[in-house]
Amino acid sequence: MKRLAPLLATAGLLAGALPLLTAGQASADPAAAQEYAPPKPAWHRCAAEQPAAYECATLKVPLDYRQPRGRTLDLAISRVKAPDPAKRRGVLLMNPGGPGGPGLDLPLMADGALPKEVRERYDLIGFDPRGVGASSPISCGLTDAEQEFQRAYRPETFPSDVAWARRVADKCREKAGAVLPYVTTRNTARDMDAVRVALGERKISYLGYSYGTYLGAVYTQLFPSRTDRFVLDSAVDPQRIWRGMLQVWATEAEPAFARWTRWTAERDAEYHLGATPEAVSAAFWALVARADRDPVEFQGRKITGDDIRRARPLFFSPAQAAPVVSALKAAADGTPPPRAAAVPDIGAALRGGAAEPASDNATAVFWSVVCGDTDAWPRDPERYRRDAERDKARYPLYGDMASNIKPCAFWQRPAEAAVPMRLRADVLTVQNEWDSQTPLVSGQGMHAVLRGSRMVTALGGEGHTVYLSEPGSCVNGPVNTYLATGRLPGHDVTCTTVPAQAERRGAVPGPSPLPFPAGPGRF
Question: Which of 186, 268, 289, 297 has the most crowded CB, counting CB atoms within 10 A?
Fold first, then answer.
């Protein structure tokens, strides 16, 4: 979905100091308890070509909440107000994931996607998180090649991988070093509470996807008394941040791949990849080896075996993966594809359906957050070498790419520790069974650490993110009830969903109602 480009005005200049929290309003965040002047939004129409109800403003927030009178950042926010003030409950903040995903246009998108019983309850609030888009954007000056971090491990290329990781960290430090330590999940959660204060709300409700689930969970721990109705869709496991979240892509790709081989073997008459799961697997790995030796000309590009493995998310939807692999094999053999159905664009599969990045803003924020949230990243390159060698053998589809060295090995030490998940949080988590970016075990991990949460699991559900992105999902009913009434399910719910793509095998997926960042290297 095309990004909107609203013109934003700057408002909310610092005036008199007021406390972020008044007496008796508990916060678990010492920095947020310090006094600073909450900004006041000056709303205006986002753009002449957009509806008048879609309003934008820019707040000022502290760069470092421990120094609330120091340097500030812009925080671009947006809203579409509830249609009937008499039925309005409060505000619903939204985050699409990332880290590095822009969210300024989410209210405009959600306005037409939310059911009436939910829509009438909230002002819809979007924001570009700090460092992103219109919120004091950061850049590391990275080239397109430097932004690619899904790097296959080979002994002969590992020194260049180390040099790449060091170069990315160095360039980020040189270009944005004064800001990078403060572009973290903890500070973005503090910004969310600054939005609450600016809007004059006692509490906020929240709809967060993918990385946005971790952001929402952090908010519940820092501001428990300010947490209203929170939906965490396709969740990050807080115990895995962040190297473990990359590595879970590898571990969970293996059962997804095995499922794909079974599904494809049952349809050998259509795809000609083998009549047994073992034969399908053998055909796939022969294609990968062949493409590594001699890249395959396909859809106007040369495809290597590493490229095929980078398309890991496809294998979580067998109906999407089978026509791609079948067509690639036909191209390698110099024969016509075995079936005439539409074949998804392999470039879109490698990019996750998103357009090529126009800048490195999303990548700069991604590394700032995943490196700056936690000090758990190894610092010794040899550790990455050993892990990549081990995981290439254990998880051949993606293990080496997940465990290979990343810029975090050379990143500056985090300014603050990761937020522990110790407080009760009566939130709703929802999850597809076959999610490539935040796999089921990740969603289960979030549910396990958030005491008081309820989880709805869509068995058979495919794809990353559920609510509003899969209109027929069995998850939608419990989410609508919770957002409209505040009633959580009495227990965890497991329901069955027929994958949307099952009835149109090989078709290119249609757009989601909301612009989720669905790239293979993002949450």
Answer: 186
* Cβ-based burial of 221 (10 A; exposed 0-12, middle 13-18, buried ≥19): buried
* Residue 304 CA neighbour count, 13 Å, CB half: 7
Contact 211, 101 (CB under 8 A): yes
Active site (annotated) includes residue 435: yes
Nearest to 225 by CA among 31, 22, 486, 430: 22
pLDDT at position 8 is 25
200 alpha-carbon distance from chain centroid: 29
- Tell me if residue 368 is catalytic: no
Which entry of 387, 435, 447, 469 is annotated as an active-site residue? Answer: 435
> What is the per-residue pLDDT across 428-459, written as a single tens digit (0 to 9) for each?
999 999 999 999 999 999 999 999 999 999 99
Per DSSP bridges, beta strands 204-209 and 122-127 are unpaired
DSSP string, 193-222: HHHHHHHT-S-EEEEEETHHHHHHHHHHHH
pLDDT of residue 90: 98
3-state secondary structure of 484: helix
The residue behind tokens 């965890």 is 492
Q: Which of 78, 136, 210, 469 is catalytic?
A: 210
pTM: 0.91
Paired with 56 in beta bridges are: 44, 78
> Which residue in this structure is represented by tokens 């571990």?
251
Active-site option among 464, 469, 473, 512: 464
**Computed over its alpha carbons, how large is the radius of gyration of the chain?**
23
Burial status of residue 285 (CB atoms within 10 A of its CB: 0-12, 13-18, 19 or more): middle
Q: Are residues 313 and 346 in contact, defined by beta-carbon separation less than 8 angstroms? A: no
Compute the C-alpha angle 90/456/511, nearest 5°.
Answer: 75
For the chain, the residue count is 523
- In eight-state DSSP terms, residue 355 is P
Q: What angle (nearest 5°) sits at the alpha carbon of residue 305, between those of residues 304 and 310?
A: 95
Three-state SS across 370-421? Answer: HHHCCCCCCCCHHHHHHHHHHHHHHCCCCHHHHHCCCHHHHCCCCCCCCCCC
* Distance (Å, whole) CA 91 – CA 206: 8
Residues contacting 267, CB < 8 A, separation 6+: 322
Q: Which uninterrupted H or E stretch holds 229?
A: strand 227-233
How many other β-carbons are positioned within 10 Å of the β-carbon of residue 276?
13
The Cα 51–Cα 74 span in angstroms is 24
Measured distance CA(185)–CA(183) in Å, rounded: 7
pLDDT at 9 (0 to 100): 27
d(C-alpha 159, C-alpha 317), whole Å: 35
Answer yes or no: are the C-beta atoms of 162 and 405 closer than 8 Å: yes
Torsion of CA 212, 219, 243, 441, to 10 degrees: -70
Positions of the chain with pLDDT lower than 70, given as ranges: 1-27, 30-39, 339-342, 344, 346-358, 500-521
Pair of tokens at residue 254: 């293996």
